[in-house]
């Protein structure tokens, strides 16, 4: 779950990239970086931390040029440290190159071993560096052809931005796992993971980059091609469920309206007769909770308040406060909850530990019943396409029934939206255009790495929190 942004043809390219990354901060908070081109050289700045803390005015001034790409990182391949921060920048026989990647390559380890056996030396743990080595070794005459040859060898999810001294290249994988959109700002072209980044800089949304499409922007203008064989579309359903910002338009649909429709469908499938109110687990559960309330006729209210000032680290008191971490992020509104039968809507349950703490918090605040409703199906399988989903052993729904999970989280009842209902809500009744592997186990690529057999055999244990 990373965010990428690029712009060509603007005198303040690095500053606008900084703003674009700020709008995409929800997609990754571990590190951020910008690489700018002045037509002759690439200049880069990458640090651990948040965009607003990293890119001060003096840093932006040291990134001159009319083209830039940027990246915010949430690690899925490679540990969280500076050497894995992107965009990755290298010099090779063809010149200078920077790359920003959203996604995950499922055959990266296999390719890395082959490249190392042939003498390649890797500087990071990131799967993205495999693409750089493949490009550097390509004998194709043009940069675009080198990129096509390199990507022809990789499998998995990638929305990629490449920046050289004189051009920007954007590519989306043939399944279209990760989003990528094209915008226009006066005479500049803009590319971003989500439309919310275009909105912030007041760029016009042109269209979504098509699956398997390559876009090249240089002094000759913009040109596009489809160099990869088409395949079944596999747009990530979890982008709509959780990842994307609600104000974005994703895969042709409003994220906010889609999440409300998920809530409506959830209410139709998993009603709670006689409930007094519907509340959300903020912030991601809010649109679905509103939709649930609309379809059920049960009033919506704010029963949980989220703190927006929780830092990345904190000091826990030695005499530990129960559910300390959750209480830092969420607080219950006793006046709303006391004596009420409450429907609480969340987007997903992964391990179950957070849901358990939330349910206990609501009951401690005076709720007489807590009915947990989830706007996605049970998450039973890990994701290999760019989401940091735990191993199957850690996914509570992989080996426990809905009733068992309800008992563990201490809810009076638990209900998930069905897989068919999810498809209906996102406009994919035939379930042919989205990847739902984390719910169904139906992966769209063949090679999922050597760890899969052990994970499939493992089952999670329910441990009291």
Which terms summarize this structure?
23 strands; single chain; disordered C terminus; Rossmann fold; Glutamine Phosphoribosylpyrophosphate, subunit 1, domain 1; seven-stranded antiparallel beta sheet; six-stranded antiparallel beta sheet; alpha+beta; 465 residues; 2 domains; elongated
Q: What is the mean predicted local confidence, pLDDT?
A: 91
Please tally the helical runs, counting DSSP H or I stretches of 4 or more residues: 17
Give a quick account of the main beta sheet: strands, pairing sense, barrel closure: 7 strands, antiparallel
CATH topology heading of the largest domain: Glutamine Phosphoribosylpyrophosphate, subunit 1, domain 1
Q: What is the CATH C-level name of the largest domain?
A: Alpha Beta
Shape: elongated
Number of strands: 23
Tell me the Rg in angstroms: 23 Å
The CATH architecture of the largest domain can be given as: 4-Layer Sandwich
Number of domains: 2
Strand order of the largest sheet: 3-2-4-1-10-9-11
The fraction of residues assigned to DSSP E strands is: 15-25%
For the record, give the distance between the C-alpha atoms at the N and C termini, rounded to a whole number: 28 Å
Describe the structure.
The chain is an alpha+beta fold and 465 residues long. The strands form six sheets. It has a seven-stranded antiparallel beta sheet with strand order 3-2-4-1-10-9-11. Strands 5-6-7-8-12-13 form a six-stranded antiparallel beta sheet, covered by helices on one side. Strand 2 and strand 3 form a beta hairpin. Helix 4 crosses helix 5 and helix 9 packs across helix 10. The two termini are 28 Å apart. The C terminus is likely disordered. It catalyses: 5-phospho-beta-D-ribosylamine + L-glutamate + diphosphate = 5-phospho-alpha-D-ribose 1-diphosphate + L-glutamine + H2O.
């Amino acid at each position: 779950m990373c965010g990428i942004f690029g712009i060509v043809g603007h005198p303040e390219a690095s500053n606008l990239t900084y703003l674009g990354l700020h709008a995409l901060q929800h997609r990754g908070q571990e590190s951020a970086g910008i690489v700018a081109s002045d037509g002759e050289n690439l200049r880069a700045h990458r640090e651990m931390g948040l965009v607003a803390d990293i890119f001060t005015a003096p840093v932006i001034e040291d990134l001159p040029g009319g083209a830039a790409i940027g990246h915010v990182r949430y690690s899925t391949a490679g540990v969280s440290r500076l050497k894995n921060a992107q965009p990755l920048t290298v010099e090779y026989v063809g010149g200078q190159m920077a790359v920003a990647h959203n996604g995950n390559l499922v055959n990266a380890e296999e390719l890395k071993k082959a490249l190392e056996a042939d003498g390649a030396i890797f500087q990071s743990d990131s799967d993205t560096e495999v693409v750089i080595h493949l490009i550097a070794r390509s004998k194709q005459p043009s940069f675009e052809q080198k990129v096509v040859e390199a990507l022809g060898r990789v499998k998995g999810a990638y929305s990629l931005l490449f920046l050289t001294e004189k051009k920007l290249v954007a590519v989306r994988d043939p399944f279209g796992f990760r989003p990528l959109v094209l915008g226009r700002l006066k005479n500049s072209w803009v590319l971003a993971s989500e439309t919310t980044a275009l909105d912030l800089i007041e760029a016009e949304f042109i269209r979504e980059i098509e699956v398997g499409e390559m876009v090249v922007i240089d002094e000759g203008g913009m040109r596009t091609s489809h160099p990869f064989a088409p395949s079944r579309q596999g747009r990530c359903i979890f982008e709509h469920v959780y990842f994307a910002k609600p104000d974005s338009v994703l895969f042709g649909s409003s994220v906010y309206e889609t999440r409300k429709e998920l809530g409506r469908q959830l209410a139709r499938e998993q009603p709670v007769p006689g409930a007094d109110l519907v509340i959300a687990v903020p912030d991601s559960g809010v649109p679905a909770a509103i939709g649930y309330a609309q379809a059920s006729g049960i009033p919506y209210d704010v029963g949980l308040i989220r703190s927006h000032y929780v830092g990345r680290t904190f000091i826990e008191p030695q005499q530990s406060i129960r559910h300390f971490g959750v209480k830092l992020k969420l607080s219950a509104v006793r006046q709303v909850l006391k004596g009420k039968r409450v429907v609480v809507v969340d987007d997903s349950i992964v391990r179950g530990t957070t849901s358990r703490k939330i349910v206990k918090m609501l009951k401690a605040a005076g709720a007489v019943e807590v009915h947990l409703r989830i706007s996605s199906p049970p998450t039973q399988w890990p994701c290999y396409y760019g989401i940091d989903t735990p191993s199957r052993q850690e996914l509570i729904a992989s080996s426990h029934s809905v009733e068992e999970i309800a008992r563990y989280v201490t809810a009076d009842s638990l209900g998930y939206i069905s897989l068919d209902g999810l498809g209906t809500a996102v406009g994919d009744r035939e379930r042919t255009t989205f990847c739902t592997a984390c719910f169904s186990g139906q992966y769209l690529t063949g090679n999922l790495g050597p760890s899969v057999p052990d994970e499939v055999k493992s089952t999670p244990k329910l441990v009291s929190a």
